[in-house]
Amino acid sequence: TGRERAKMLRKWYDLMVENADDIAKLITWENGKPVAEAKGEAAYAANFFEWFSEEAPRTYGDTIPATVPGNRVWTIKEPVGVCGLITPWNFPAAMITRKVAPALAAGCTVVCKAPGETPYTALAVTELSHRAGIPKGVVNVVTTLSNTPEIGEVLTTDPTVKKVSFTGSTGVGKLLMKQSSGTLKKLSLELGGNAPFIVFDDADL
Fold first, then answer.
1. Which of 16, 58, 97, 125 is most buried by a 10 A CB count?
2. Short-list 148, 128, 141, CA closest to 99
3. Which residues are catalytic?
4. Residue 143 placed within a domain
């Protein structure tokens, strides 16, 4: 139930907070992030579990007025199924928790393709999920460096996987979308961009 998932996510949050210094050390060792920033990321990563532990019991549907008198129309929210999550190296803890937490809150299981540059951070976060009481097989991590394209292809073409969430380059995002077309997967793509803004003539630069 949503409340049971909420309890496990909350426990996972507590464990992330308790082990924040160790997670920060792993982040620094693996991708070179300064210790202060790594500690900030560890706290940020934990917060996703806190937030979605509160959202898990709130998976409400909607009651919609029907056009036919005496009829009632309602929606029911259900898990989509197995989610394939592909995360980048620059936020090795936060990008995983940001994707895993909402999936678990909704009742889905996940397969995470951890970045080859930062596998130990992903594995440490996953170990804490087991200590939080989340059953084995609910949160799964695949580590790879040399065969990353093959793993991506499996996640996008296997009909067992119902949704793919990817953070990374626009080029890879296009490839994943193309590969997913055969199974009509749901996709969430956070791709590279230039973050443009406008500077007016009266700006004091």
1. 125
2. 141
3. 190
4. yes
